[in-house]
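Sample pair:
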Amino acid sequence: MTVAELCKAAGMSRQNFYKTRTSRKRKQVDEQFVRHLVEAERAVQPRLGGLKLHKMLRERLEDEDVRLGRDRFFEVLRNQSLLLEPLPKAPRTTHSAHSLPVFANQIKDLTLTGPHQVWVSDITYIRTREDFLYLSLITDKYSRKVVGYHVGRTLETQDTLKALAMAIDQLPEGTHPIHHSDRGCQYCSHEYVKELQKHGMPVSMTEEDHCAENALAERVNGILKQEYFLNYRFQSVVQLCTAVDEAVRLYNTRRPHRSLKLCTPEEIHRKAA
């Protein structure tokens, strides 16, 4: 069929026909460019969602004269089969059946104004081919930055203390954040509490709803395991530790957070500090 016949069948002028065809081709090129950028970022952060991708890629798209609003961007992701499938929630365990002293929740109604006011802590397991290892995390509640972490072979306090030591090493002089955790035996141990008190850090713990009262720590665990694949079974301890280092680095410096107005934890932590 000739162009004239196509125009007549579609009820449009030759000028509109070519304009529509050019627009359609441009749309296809734009979608392929978006796909290229998304796949490049997903190669580093495979579980990064659409809203965060839109924020991260907006400047690069505009440099190439590709202007996509949020709804259109999600339409492109859908067209290109780039929307993420939800993952099942990981199991959680807290060893709180002990006779050690516990502390009240001091952060329940606390309004934060900057970093190093409240640190939240939690422990999660990571699988290797032969065993479980345990990742201890300490996160600044204001900036969402992971300030301390350690991979240990046991759930003993000595491994949890190493994450605390990393966090304390970067603590500005004269600051004494509240340390908040669940009532796990590691955090209630005399050794751990003594170390907190040594550095003038008030001790806060969950009281009733342990998950809700330590939601940020639980959330960070989930992000690292689901978005950065720390829920996989690693072949060796070396491979696992390398993956943890990279996951924390990406989480802190490259992953935008909705709660931070799509800034990264490192950006908020540095600006506020």
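The radius of gyration is 24 Å.
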